[in-house]
Amino acid sequence: MAFRVRLGRLLAHRRADPATVARAAGLPAPEVEAVLAGDSVSAALLRRLAPALGLHAADLFVIADRDVPVDLAPASGTHLWHVGQVMRSAMGLYGERFDRMHEFIRSLPVLPPVEPLSASTRSTEAFVRRLLANRNIRPHIAHLLCAVGDGPYVSDSTICRVLNGDTPLTPRYVTAFAAVLGLRPGDLAALTGVGPPAESTRLYPRRHRLAALAWDARRLNSEQLSQVQQLAAFLARVGTDAKKEWP
Q1: How far apart are CA 59 and CA 65, in angstroms?
Q2: What predicted TM-score, i.e. pTM, was given to this entire model?
Q3: How far, in Å, CA of 140 to CA of 87, rounded?
């Protein structure tokens, strides 16, 4: 799907006009109007537009079907670990224990190599899969989608089929993926063209904090993710004694 279509749908859903977005980005209105008319968009323009749209710059590169630059790209090749597992571990922690895990993630340096995330959004399903990959979250997240986004109670293999386009991407899936990704369900429905999003009263209450933690973990390498998981296991064992020193 062309970027002008995705951006146009997003602005229509938000009832935002191009001039308002342009002002927020510090850009002349004709530059945004040109994008909506189908003109090519530069990497510099994407970086300017992202905060005006309330989006991560890396996500806007995905939305535009562009390679995510090295300085914005997630880690890759983290072997046994991925950020979806970190999210599941964090869900079992509350209060100071959750905060301590998040602070530890933020304290870890981003280490090379970090490779660009290649553009490959040939379909709506591939687009959602790439948004997950932009957080180093692999498709085997059926439990996470159910627990965080009130997704259907299905297997990991079913989620893989959805993301491969072999099983329909329904509004309920869109709501669930949005919760895991930290996006507004209506925004993801507009970007995918699948909606309106399913209404749910069973969304995970701390989903926004969980998504923020996931975003901060997206560039960690395999060894660092392993350290995060070890800390999470330790914090789960010590219970309310969150200040206990980690070995």
Answers
A1: 10
A2: 0.94
A3: 13
